[in-house]
Specification:
Blueprint lengths: L1 E2 L9 H10 L5 H12 L2 E2 L2 E2 L2 E2 L3 E2 L10 H9 L2 H9 L2 E5 L2 E5 L7 H24 L5
Antiparallel strand pairs: 1-7, 2-5, 3-4, 6-7
Helix pairs in contact: 1-2, 1-3, 4-5
Length: 136
C-alpha cells in the first residue's frame, strides 16, 4: 500500500500545469483558467477572533472541490505507467495505491520473479516521487 503523505497539499503547481499542457493537451483559455485557478489562492489563520495576514498558496490543489481530486489524479498519472511496466495489477484511489503480484506459492522461481518485479516497480515509483516532489 502506498499512502502519499499530505498528497493534495504537496502538488507542485508548475509540474501540474506542465503535465496538463504537455500530456493532456490543455491549452489556450482553458490552460489560462487553470493557471489562475491554481495560483490565485491564499489562506489565513484565525484564532480567538483574530486573523493573520494572507499567505499565498504555492503548492497543492484546492480541496473540498470536485476539481481537487481530478487534478491530483492527473498529477500522479505517471504512477500508472510505471506500475503497468512492472506489475499486472494495481488499484488506486486519489492518494492511496495498492500494488500486488500473484505467483505460485510452491514455485521458488515465481516467488523470486514476483519479488523482483515489485522491487523494480517500487524503485521506479520512488524515483518518480522524488522528481515530482511527493513523499510516501
Amino acid at each position: 500500500m502506498l499512502d502519499l503523505s499530505s498528497a493534495f497539499d504537496t502538488v507542485d503547481l508548475d509540474i501540474l500545469l506542465d503535465r496538463l499542457n504537455n500530456e493532456f493537451g490543455i491549452k489556450g483559455r482553458v490552460f489560462e483558467w487553470f493557471t489562475l485557478y491554481l495560483y490565485k489562492r491564499s489562506q489565513f489563520i484565525s484564532a480567538n477572533g483574530r486573523r493573520s495576514r494572507l499567505f499565498d498558496i504555492s503548492y497543492g490543489v484546492p480541496q473540498r472541490s470536485c476539481l481537487g481530486p481530478l487534478l491530483f489524479v492527473l498529477y500522479v498519472s505517471k504512477v500508472f505507467r510505471i506500475v503497468e511496466k512492472h506489475l499486472p495489477d494495481a488499484h488506486a484511489f486519489a492518494d492511496d495505491s495498492q500494488l500486488y503480484v500473484s505467483f505460485k506459492p510452491d514455485s521458488t522461481s515465481d516467488q523470486l520473479a514476483a519479488l523482483a518485479a515489485l522491487e523494480h516497480c517500487i524503485n521506479d515509483i520512488k524515483d518518480w516521487m522524488l522528481s515530482d516532489k511527493l513523499k510516501v
